[in-house]
UniProtKB/TrEMBL annotation:
Top-rank taxon, per record: Eukaryota
PROSITE patterns: SAP
PANTHER family recorded: APPLE DOMAIN-CONTAINING PROTEIN, PROTEIN CBG23806
Organism annotation: Magallana gigas (Pacific oyster)
Pfam families for this protein: SAP
Protein name: SAP domain-containing protein
Positions of the SAP domain: 403-437
Length: 606
């Protein structure tokens, strides 16, 4: 159509002009060249070569931009390689193509100069992604299941950031036979909003209310794609803190801690209760908001998502309980003075660990022991492979706990019970408690103390030793429970909702027998009562969790240092805008399948 239009236009051109050449730059970035007035065979041959070269050059530029974004390579580094003679497009060509790809999806930046917040519309993302046939697998009965998540993380030492993302889920009734058929990548998490600031209720309400309103509109009205009306169903999964902020419910430390039911701290250790159904609902929240009943303190930012569409996040579930198990062992190791054995055992299984002492500034120069916390992958290794018998022994009353190994909250409880000041750093609290009890380094058990420990037992009192074999079994059973959440229903290690509930309930009861009531954290309650409920509804929870959102956090941190000007330079831009422009480019590259197909690895044999 272009050639015909220009051929008609050039009929008025003087006859003494032998040929006319037209070059068009299309919005897609492609270049089209043709002769509306017939050229010679030689000119046509050159034209074909030029078109082919332009297409190759454009593809090379787009591939370089994709690699640049993926590995966070600076413009200056590419320019220096280009100047050395490497077959890399010039910086000018790369910058021009980047500007075009930045507009793949429209970005909405907060107009206030003091606010760094940029967002994208879910409608725009879905229309762009679902326009490609390869994504038809996500549709079932003209319905899309979308998981929303919100998470905060530092992108530098002094800069906090928060992002809201969503993921298109495989229909729960059409799960593949192999877990490899489910994509688990940070690229699957589409960023709806990104802002620089704290993860707090006032900031969320102020900056991203429009995003929640759009989500509600899509759920109520659907989305038209290629002439079809597609229903949208949202579910939400976050860590406990983000859920409490978004839902307007008290945190995990409060009396009514649970995000799904009315269980209180007085009932959290009672695993004889058959079930805790999902009792929370938006209507109940509106009725009880004024009286702060059942932990409701603010309005729900996502009332259009029912509480039974809010699955437990398996990543933070595993990490928080694993941390509790691990820190118990570290504390017991300090009491038994086997810290060297602990470090040796962790080195054996390949986990980085460090323990050190800090001297307090009090008059007693009290030394406080501290230790590093393994990351999520290392915690999984610790629970699975660590042999507790190499670190601990049974020859100890587990009611004895050294003062130095107590947490800050435990120290404050003990000081408060003695009518002492509970303000100050941990080293100060330790010194104050030691001074109060004289030469003893153990804490005495009291009637209502959170500590189940004693230092003045007589010889004829019953002493219950720490059972290492039973504790090791608790670790292994927990590992098996969590691994069962990572496999599909057709796997031999998969647990149905009923089996999972029974096994988790038995595990929690054994955990309570071998440890202390204060160690039963809210995530253990969720493991026993609410994970089975969502497992029965969604069949598979691992792809719903926020593991890839955490990787997205890391990617954004790396992008801050490698792909933005960090809000400096001559052309200052919002950090949030630069990061979402990069996501626009990466989304385009993913949909257009720009990524190089890697050769299969073949091990060379001598």
């Amino acid at each position: 159509k272009y050639e015909e239009a220009f051929r008609n236009a050039t009929t008025e051109v003087h006859n003494d002009i032998k040929s006319v050449k037209v070059t068009l730059q299309l919005e897609s970035g492609k270049t089209m060249t043709f002769y509306p007035r017939q050229g010679s065979d030689e000119e046509n041959s050159v034209l074909e070569d030029d078109n082919l070269k332009q297409q190759k050059d454009l593809k090379l530029i787009q591939s370089v931009i994709h690699i640049k974004d993926k590995y966070r390579i600076s413009d200056e580094a590419l320019h220096e390689l280009h100047m050395l003679g490497a077959s890399i497009p010039s910086k000018n060509n790369i910058v021009l193509e980047k500007k075009r790809l930045n507009s793949t999806l429209e970005l909405y930046t907060n107009p206030s100069p003091n606010i760094d917040c940029t967002r994208r519309k879910a409608k725009d993302i879905l229309e762009y992604v679902m326009s490609y046939s390869k994504n038809e697998k996500y549709l079932e009965n003209d319905t899309l299941l979308l998981r929303f998540a919100c998470d905060g993380a530092k992108i530098s030492k002094n800069i906090n950031s928060v992002r809201g993302v969503f993921k298109i889920l495989i229909p729960r009734n059409s799960l593949p036979e192999d877990v490899k058929g489910i994509s688990m990548s940070p690229e699957d998490e589409f960023t709806l909003f990104f802002y620089i600031g704290d993860e707090s209720r006032p900031v969320l309400e102020n900056l991203v209310t429009e995003t929640f309103q759009e989500m509600k509109y899509l759920q109520e009205n659907g989305l038209e794609l290629n002439g079809r009306l597609i229903s949208i169903k949202w579910i939400i999964t976050c860590d406990w803190k983000a859920l409490s902020i978004i839902r307007g419910i008290n945190g995990a430390q409060c009396q009514y801690f649970c995000m799904w039911c009315h269980c209180s701290k007085k009932q959290i250790c009672d695993f004889s209760i058959p079930s805790w159904p999902i009792q929370r609902c938006p209507l109940e929240q509106v009725k009880n908001l004024s009286g702060n009943t059942f932990g409701y303190k603010e309005k729900d930012l996502c009332p259009f998502i029912p509480y039974d569409d809010m699955p437990v996040d398996d990543l933070h579930l595993r990490i928080r309980i694993s941390q509790k198990l691990f820190n118990q062992v570290v504390t017991w190791s300090i009491d038994q003075k086997t810290e060297d054995d602990l470090c040796k055992e962790l080195r054996r299984i390949g986990v980085s660990f460090r323990m050190w002492e800090e001297k307090g500034d009090d008059k007693l120069n009290t030394k406080v022991k501290k230790w590093s916390q393994p990351n999520g992958d290392d915690l999984r290794t610790v629970i699975h492979k660590m042999q507790l018998a190499n670190v601990l022994s049974d020859q100890r009353d587990r009611r004895y706990v050294n003062i130095e190994s107590l947490t800050i909250s435990q120290l404050k409880d003990e000081l408060s019970g003695r009518g002492l000041d509970k303000k100050g750093k941990k080293c100060v609290l330790v010194a104050r408690l030691k001074e109060a009890i004289g030469s003893n380094t153990k804490v005495q058990k009291k009637c209502h103390s959170r500590l189940q420990v004693s230092y003045d037992l007589t010889d004829d009192e019953y002493e219950q030793d720490l059972d290492i074999d039973a504790l090791q079994e608790i670790w292994q059973e927990f590992h098996q429970l969590m691994e069962s959440l990572r496999v599909l229903p057709n796997s031999t290690t998969y647990k149905t909702a009923e089996i999972f509930h029974n096994d988790a309930k038995e595990w929690a009861s054994n955990f309570r027998k071998q440890t202390f009531d204060e160690d039963v954290i809210p995530y253990i309650h969720a493991l026993v009562y609410h994970v089975p409920q969502f497992l029965g509804k969604f069949n598979f929870l691992h792809d719903i969790g926020v593991a890839q959102v955490e990787r997205k956090n890391f990617d954004h941190r790396q992008a801050y240092f490698g792909s933005t000007n960090r809000n400096g330079g001559k052309n200052r831009q919002n950090i949030s805008k630069q990061i979402l422009e990069r996501e626009n480019r990466m989304l385009w590259a993913d949909v257009e399948e720009i990524t190089r197909v890697k050769r299969p690895y073949r091990k060379k044999t001598e």
